[in-house]
Amino acid sequence: MFDSGKWAWLIRLVFLLVIITSITDIATDMGQGANIVHIIQESVICILALYLLLSLFLSTRAQAKQNGQLLIELNEAKLHSARASKELVKAKRIFGEEILKQFANWELTESESDVALFTLKGFNAKEIANLRNASEKTVRNQLTSIYKKSMTSSKVSFIAWFLEDLF
Fold it and tell me: Which of 13, 82, 108, 121 could form a disulfide linkage to 112, CB 3.0–4.6 angstroms apart?
């Protein structure tokens, strides 16, 4: 129904009307010689409404300032994230190129390179066989050849070979 900005303006308007009405009523009561206790009561209500209006105004102003600062920080974070994403894409590309160079250094065949990439991505032999439309036995033989050429002994040690010096 109302967003927070409209709601704050509506509340300010209500307090302003209370203050104007109170001042008018106090002036009228004083002109008619009303009881001093009644005038004091209305004055307290008027002062309280004025205080609440001022508090609301200051609070809204502080909130707007904080929101502005948060927007600035959000935009900075978005820029930083975009830069980091570009750097990450570049790093992934470079890492991928280095992986392929290492496969070439180990003299992996094209099929072995495909199987090795799937292994680095975490697929098991059965999944790789399904992805490559090959038998699981063929993939297991290729994995054995990959481990032998890379001087590793298992899927874990093969993956670890590439991650070892990253951290």
Answer: 108
**CATH number 1.10.10.10 given to 106-167:** yes
pTM (two decimals): 0.55
Phi, psi of 151 (to 5 degrees): 55, 40
Tokens describing residue 126: 């059965």
CB-side exposure of 75: number of CA atoms within 13 Å? 5
CA distances from 116 to 50, 147, 151, 165 (A): 75, 9, 13, 19
Residue 142 burial (10 A CB sphere; 0-12, 13-18, 19+): buried
Q: What is the pLDDT of residues 143-163, one digit of tens each?
A: 999 999 999 999 999 999 988
Alpha-carbon distance 147 to 134, whole Å?
19
Domain boundaries, the chain: 1-86, 106-167
